[in-house]
Amino acid sequence: MPTDARVLRILIANLLLRVAASAAAVVAALYLTQINENLRGVAAWEVSLIVAISYTAIELPLSPLAGAWSDRFGSRRLLIVGPLLAAAGTLLMAFSTATALLALGRLLGGGAAALTTPPMLKQMTAYTEDDPKLRSQAVSLYQLTGLLGFVIGSGAGGFLFAWMAEAAFSLLAAVYAAPALLLWAALLYQDESAPTGSTPPPKWGRLGGGEQSHWRVHLRLLRLPSMRGFVPAWLAFNLILGLWLSQIAYQLGGPQWAGQRLPGGFSDSEVGLLFAGYGGTILLGLLVWFWLLPRMRRSSALFVAAGGLVGTSVAVLLLNRWEGWLVWPALLLLAVSVMVEAGFAPATLALLGDISDEAQTSRGALMGLYNVLLGGGQLVGGWIGGLAAGWAAIDGLSYATLLLAALTVLFVLPLHRMEKMAKKDTDLRG
User: Fold this and answer.
1) What sign does the dihedral 331-332-334-339 (CA atoms) show?
2) Cβ neighbours of residue 277 under 8 Å, at least 6 residues apart?
3) Spatial contact of 292 and 300, defined as CB atoms under 8 Å apart
4) Residue 242 C-beta-side C-alpha neighbours within 13 Å
5) What is the DSSP letter of 50?
6) Could you give the 3-state DSSP secondary structure of residue 223?
7) What pLDDT digit, counting tens, does each position of 210-266 carry?
8) Which domains does the chain have, with CATH numbers?
9) Does position 206 have pLDDT exceeding 50, yes or no?
10) What does the alpha-carbon distance between residue 112 and residue 269 come to, in Å, rounded to a whole number?
11) What's the alpha-carbon Rg for the chain, to the nearest Å?
């Protein structure tokens, strides 16, 4: 476990924010069913607008701005204001049935995610700059707490609504406010504004100051040699994530498909159990990578994790065809592959932390780009998933994943070469 108390507070804050966000999405969906049954009809577009679109629509464009703001003005304000905005928005939903106000509440929640994620990642990478092992452990636990928060929140949302109905929003508002109070009470952040003229800028330009627009800062960051491999690799991974998340529940519980065993082969409760098993396997994999990542090069970890994506696709293809005892080796391959692919997200975040050491006045802007690629990739991946599933159901998703995983490996190659060259230079200087 990380021993730096500042890192631990960030991890706790991340857990609480993810619990609140996931539970609020579930409670909002169930609240709409109650409104539909008792007050007025709720159209499908209203459900999409309130539960998902309003949240994402503000998170994606605001994330790069929030990252740049944290570089220029410091992270403290954003990390306190963000959760409090989400708390206010969630509280608003408890006292309204109007579509516009419910969407506004979710919009504030998405804004809070945008305002808090880049600054949290910025501070965590700054605190671990001189300790690569701590950085590897911290990013693994960051991913683990995020996933754990999603699992806890998604499960708790249904129970809270059954127990408290719309009053559950009030309880979730308190959960949202807790990270702000934690960080404020701990006086975690002292003076975090961007360096002044008395501090030498990095060798390639002072990107975090007020001399350049936010967009020029991001464009210059994208021109960094190490970003040329990072951006497409991280984007491809999130395309894969988006195509599966958008389709797999419908494919497993929906209509059957000729020649395939998995589509339409499961009840609603069985689909839930499969998701729980998948989440548990990911959590176990992240615990393994918590130990493994500090002992590997970043690019090597990405190669191995990309191999897990390939293995998962192959295992799903086999399960979609095989019967009898042959199912067991395919399930074993699937479990191992899911644990292996779990390392991709922490490895990319650790790599981005290393890249941010070259751009210390623009750490927040880098983390904003990370968040945009994460959300934008999953949105586009959902569209790709629709095309792939329409073509060949689960087989189509698996083939699309194999193609994207192969591209991911190609994108990681430049990073691997750069790491080898950097190590060679270090050995020569030593």
Assistant:
1) positive
2) none
3) no
4) 22
5) I
6) coil
7) 445 666 777 777 777 778 788 899 999 999 988 888 788 788 888 889 999 999 888
8) 5-187 (1.20.1250.20), 221-429 (1.20.1250.20)
9) no
10) 33
11) 22
